[in-house]
């Protein structure tokens, strides 16, 4: 993997030019900030597809997964929509020795929590994600969620967080609620609808996007869905990496 856009001195590359996890963790470190920082991590094909046959794995690669693991290793919490949890077969985040010292120094637990966004709570609460995580899974929902489903989630061991009125989750409130619980390094992995909601709510700080050198055609979703914003938000390139035709970009929002 080679650096194309200079952002930091990644001298930890080995003889083959591959970066160590420490070097990647330094490159993708969260900025020092008083509040929450929400970054997204997504992959897209050249023609804009965020998935193939309903999943992102077919358009990913080993280096993409290496960055995926690094971003998780740095986060306090990983946020995902209910549909993504179902389609991608989400499991609890695991503790990784490579990030143990870094997380301890930052005052973090051994692994990030997973926060699932669901208004209806139509989730299988018998899955390991809920009953046997290393860190309790959070469920972000609205005040109007079915009471019996809230109770089922709590009995399974999940922490239910009310982050909206009615059956909908307010993205900005979700960020605030997570930050109030000490989760300030936020990572969302989608899906496209959830990312679109964060964009529309004007709370996304950083976009980590892998561009896969493949074409799929078809009608797959883009990385962000939902209503268009009134005025496009401008982001600035922070880093750009390349390997085997895959581009690994990182953009940060330009704050006025």
TrEMBL record:
Return the InterPro entries for the record. Answer: DHFR-like_dom_sf, RibDG_C, Riboflavin_Biosynth_HTPR
Any idea where the Bacterial bifunctional deaminase-reductase C-terminal domain is?
37-229
Gene3D superfamilies according to UniProt: Dihydrofolate Reductase, subunit A
Q: In which pathway does it act?
A: Cofactor biosynthesis; riboflavin biosynthesis
One protein family per Pfam: RibD_C
Give the signal sequence positions: none
| Source species, domain of life | Bacteria
UniProt keywords (A-Z) are: NADP, Oxidoreductase
Identification of the protein by name: Pyrimidine reductase family protein
Species of origin: Streptomyces poriferorum
């Amino acid at each position: 993997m080679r650096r194309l856009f200079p952002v930091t001195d990644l001298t930890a590359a080995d003889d083959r030019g591959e970066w160590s996890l420490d070097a990647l963790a330094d490159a993708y470190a969260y900025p020092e900030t008083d509040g929450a920082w929400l970054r997204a991590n997504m992959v897209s094909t050249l023609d804009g597809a965020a998935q193939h046959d309903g999943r992102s794995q077919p358009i990913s690669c080993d280096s993409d997964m290496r960055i995926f693991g690094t971003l998780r290793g740095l986060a306090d919490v990983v946020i995902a929509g209910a549909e993504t949890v179902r389609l991608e077969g989400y499991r609890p985040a695991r503790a990784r020795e490579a990030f143990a010292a870094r997380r301890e120094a930052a005052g973090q637990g051994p692994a990030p929590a997973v926060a699932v966004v669901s208004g209806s709570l139509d989730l299988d609460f018998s899955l390991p994600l809920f009953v046997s995580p290393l860190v309790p899974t959070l469920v972000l929902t609205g005040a109007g969620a079915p009471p019996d489903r809230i109770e089922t989630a709590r009995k399974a061991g999940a922490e239910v967080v009310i982050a909206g009125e009615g059956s909908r989750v307010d993205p900005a409130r979700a960020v605030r609620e997570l930050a109030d619980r000490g989760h300030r390094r936020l990572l969302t992995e989608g899906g496209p609808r959830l990312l679109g909601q964060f964009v529309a709510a004007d709370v996304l700080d950083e976009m980590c996007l892998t561009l896969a050198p493949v074409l799929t055609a078809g009608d797959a979703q883009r990385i962000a869905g939902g209503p268009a914003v009134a005025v496009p938000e401008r982001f600035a390139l922070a880093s750009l990496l390349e390997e085997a035709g895959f581009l690994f970009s990182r953009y940060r929002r330009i704050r006025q």
